[in-house]
Amino acid sequence: MTQRTTGIHHITVFVQSAQATVDFYSGVLGLRLVKKTINFDAPEVYHLYFGDEKGSPGTIITFFPSPGSRRGRIGGGQVGITTYAIPEGSYDFWHARLLRFGISVETREHFSEKVLHFRDNSGLLLELVERAEGSASTWSFGGVPADKGIKGFGGAVLYSAFPEKTAHLLEQVLGMEKVGQEGSYARYKTAGDLGNIIDINVKPIEYGAGGAGTVHHIAWRAKDNEEHAAWRNKLAGLGYQVTPIVDRQYFNALYFREEGGILFEIATDPPGFARDEPAGKLGEKLMLPEWYEEQRALIEANLEPIEVRVLEEDKE
User: Fold this and answer.
1) Strand order across the 177-182 sheet
2) Model pLDDT, residue 2
3) Is residue 105 over pLDDT 70?
4) Most-buried pick from 23, 55, 101, 204 (CB within 10 A)?
5) CB distance 192 to 58 below 8 Å
6) 247-253 long-range CB contacts below 8 Å, 24 or more apart?
7) Where do the domains of the chain lie, and which CATH numbers do they carry?
8) In this structure, how many other beta carbons lie within 10 angstroms of the beta carbon of residue 165?
């Protein structure tokens, strides 16, 4: 049987301000901060995870905030647009909400779907699109009730410097199905119900520059450790330069850069975010891997204090 990913596991982004990121993704978009930890490779930097109530694969956006870091430029070799799925009938709610927070919004149409196109407060490009697929949100925060809440990723728009090569990987290696082409983009679909619609440019896009407001990598789902190991063997056998499998506490990861310049990861669904704190308390405490625990006081002293808070616009 052909090995296939069911879609996006998570997307990881560079930003400058930790608190501004919490305010936007929890305060404006209503997502739950499900894990507050550090970049395991640079413990002076937070690693913040936002998603649905449980932090389910297919809902998770993660951030490396670095105050004073340079701004990036979105372009080839990156995820260009991160798309979120909202419930059917919630388009007008979200349009009004974004405008109320002073966010400039464009209404667009792609592949016969109406989308709300905007930037977050770091410059990252986002879209909201109504989708019937995917479980309804069970989380509410601020002015976002659960019945209007973001379900998770709708998908992503990939900006490839060599789109034919990226498209070949999506279809022939990751097992996605090409389902259409419209204008400058081809559309691919996975078997999952969230993070399952991937668009890619059909003409090359000039390389962007990494930095705040750009995506560092996109991760695809593997259902378990056995499948994850099989992905590594498959990719290495096809000549991709794949990293060893890395324990990220909440999932195992491997990384490779595809030929269009985009950094891809494959991540396991288990063990998930409740492995080291109760499900009802996710994101409340700074969680450190055991090898950093003896440095907790120093690490915490070097990190910007943050809080999940209801914003003024939702208090009026």
Assistant:
1) 106-110, 113-119, 125-130, 78-86, 152-159, 197-201, 185-189, 177-182
2) 77
3) yes
4) 55
5) yes
6) 248/40, 249/37, 249/40, 249/275, 249/276, 249/287, 249/289, 250/35, 250/49, 250/55, 250/275, 251/9, 251/57, 252/225, 252/228, 253/219
7) 8-314 (3.10.180.10)
8) 14
Q: Strands 78-86 and 125-130: what pairing?
A: parallel
First-to-last C-alpha distance (Å) of the chain: 56
Q: DSSP strand E in 141-206: where?
A: 152-159, 177-182, 185-189, 197-201
pLDDT band of residue 296 (cuts 50, 70, 90) is very high
- Write out the E strands in 4-139: 8-15, 32-39, 42-51, 60-65, 78-86, 106-110, 113-119, 125-130
Which two three-digit tokens encode residue 172? 């022939």
Alpha carbon 179 to its chain centroid, in Å, reads 23
What are the residues facing 63 on neighbouring strands?
Answer: 13, 48
Measure the CA–CA gap between 81 and 78, rounded to whole angstroms: 9
pLDDT tens sequence across 217-261: 999 999 999 999 999 999 999 999 999 999 999 999 999 999 999
Helical spans, DSSP H, in the chain: 18-22, 91-100, 163-168, 225-237, 296-301
Q: Tokens in use for 87?
A: 């419930």
Separation between Cα atoms, residue 47 and residue 64, nearest integer Å: 5
**DSSP tag of 146:** G
CA proximity to 82, closest of 151, 13, 162: 13
Q: Which of 110, 23, 15 is nearest to 65 (CA)?
A: 15
What is the model's pLDDT at position 254?
98
